[in-house]
Design goal:
Structural class: alpha+beta
Largest sheet: 8 strands, antiparallel
Shape: globular
Helix content: 55-70%
Distance between the termini: 53 Å
Radius of gyration: 27 Å
Strand content: 15-25%
Order of helices and strands: EEHEEEHEEEHHHHHHHHHHHH
Length: 471
């Protein structure tokens, strides 16, 4: 691909970074700054979404360097109302060029930065030069490799620091360790603590995303709360159950408060897709509008309930209990590695007992309830296996994948169980409003047929879990 370099321009960017005195935001993967100069002057909050994605929130500069209340609220799960203070200032004098392809479309921006940085915690300044390439959305994926090869040939080397801020803070930031390698020979208490630490970090990652109503954030936060609770319940020979009882109940409460928003989202999407898949002649009346009206309202109400939970007095208590758990784990003294296998075996026996009981029930409501109880046991088994996998290796990974399939199948079955009464309600509502409930009745019949297929699939999935060697 040919490329043209447009005329350069120059801009000076002044950024002040805010954090607590012990850098809670940066350590959690967030950055909060006030920047002047350039095209996007203002307050910038960058939130981690996953390992490769961050979401940026921008707000106007305002008249002073007081952090906007909205941004303080989004990071409160990390700061716990500790003061946010300036902890680094980075001034960048940037020369930049725009790179275009043969058709004249911009494909990349090349920046040559002269950086001057200071921190509030240590004397002295830091000065360095760095080059940065940012591709446009439409750029070919191979372009970055090509440009990087050209720079390397010119003697430029890749920076060891992931950002200007991390280079500025240097040794103040805790360096990452190879957790998997560390856990291969660790005791059961260390393995469990590392899992709890990782899940606590994930739970807090989704707090601001839930507040922003980000896609799938409620679901992922709810699942993380369930993982934490499953670990506390599944490793009771490692962590004292009396000491963690309040936290278990808090996590159950949080999951319950997040549930309505998630349930409305899932069921609404399920019904919308089912209606869209029907032949036109089978959709009688404003079915799609009725579905949208109901579940949009339930999602709004569920979102409000979720935010109310995060703003409640109980929620910071939950977060403090998590801090206490990580800072001073209430271990029982059983740190030997065989406790990991015992936890897996116990969770497997629990699942086995509930699956056998469910499969012994005749078709109907009692069997549906029993399968739901088996699903909860299978999810606990899955998360226990997930916790021990870094230490136990391939056997645990194989068992976890098969258990995940079982739990997923049982979850799909439960969705058909909860969908049917809602479809009956929608059919009755359509009738009361002078419409036709035929379409909802058709969907009800399809859900019932799907339940039968999923019942068989769950039995088959369980047979694979039951015969899989455990850790």
């Amino acid at each position: 691909m040919g490329a043209d370099v447009d005329a350069e321009d120059e801009v000076e960017l002044d950024a002040t970074y805010f954090d607590t005195h012990d850098l809670r935001l940066v350590r959690a993967g967030l950055t909060l700054r006030r920047r002047t100069g350039g095209d996007d002057a203002g307050w910038h909050l960058k939130l981690p979404v996953d390992a490769d994605t961050r979401r940026e929130i921008q707000r106007p500069l305002g008249t002073d360097d007081t952090v906007p209340a909205e941004l303080r609220a989004l990071v409160r799960v990390h700061t716990r109302d500790a003061p946010l203070e300036p902890m680094a200032t980075i001034t960048t004098r940037r020369r930049r060029w725009h790179i275009s392809d043969d058709a004249g479309a911009e494909v990349a921006e090349f920046a040559d930065d002269r950086v001057h940085a200071t921190t509030s915690s240590s004397p002295g300044d830091h000065d360095w030069r760095e080059l940065e390439i940012e591709l446009s959305e439409d750029a070919p994926p191979t372009l970055l490799d090509t440009l990087e090869d050209d720079l390397r040939a010119a003697g430029v080397r890749r920076s060891d620091a992931p950002s200007k801020l991390s280079r500025t803070l240097g040794e103040r930031l805790r360096r990452p360790v190879d957790g998997r390698k560390k856990l291969r020979k660790a005791g059961s208490d260390v393995v469990v603590q590392e899992y709890l630490r990782a899940q606590t970090g994930t739970l807090r990652t989704f707090d601001p995303l839930v507040r922003l109503d980000a896609d799938d954030a409620v679901h992922r936060m709810r699942v993380t709360a369930r993982r934490l609770r499953a670990a506390l319940q599944g490793f009771r020979r490692v962590l004292d159950r009396d000491a963690t009882a309040h936290l278990v109940e808090d996590l159950r409460w949080l999951g319950g408060e997040l549930a309505p928003a998630r349930d409305a989202e899932v069921t609404g999407a399920r019904f919308t897709a089912a209606v869209d898949a029907l032949p036109d002649g089978h959709v009688l009346g404003p079915v799609a509008a009725q579905v949208t009206r109901r579940f949009a309202r339930e999602q709004r109400e569920g979102q409000k309930r979720a935010i109310a939970a995060l703003d409640s007095s109980r929620y910071p208590d939950l977060q403090q209990r998590l801090d206490d758990l990580l800072d001073d784990p209430p271990t029982t003294g059983r740190a030997k590695r065989r406790e990991l296998a015992r936890a897996v075996h116990k969770a497997h026996r629990r699942t086995s007992h509930r699956m056998r009981a469910a499969l012994a029930e005749p078709w109907g409501g009692d069997r549906d309830i029993a399968l739901h109880e088996a699903r909860k046991a299978a999810k606990r088994l899955r998360y226990v296996l997930e916790a021990v996998e870094p230490a136990r290796g391939k056997k645990a990974r194989k068992a976890r994948k098969k258990t995940k399939k079982l739990a997923s199948t049982l979850g799909d079955h439960h969705d058909t169980v909860t969908a049917r009464p809602v479809l009956r309600e929608l059919a009755a509502q359509a009738h009361q409003e002078g419409g036709n409930g035929f379409t909802f009745g058709l969907l009800h019949a399809r859900e019932q047929a799907a339940a039968g297929r999923l019942d068989d699939a769950a039995e088959a999935a369980w047979s694979r879990v039951a015969t899989t060697p455990r850790t």
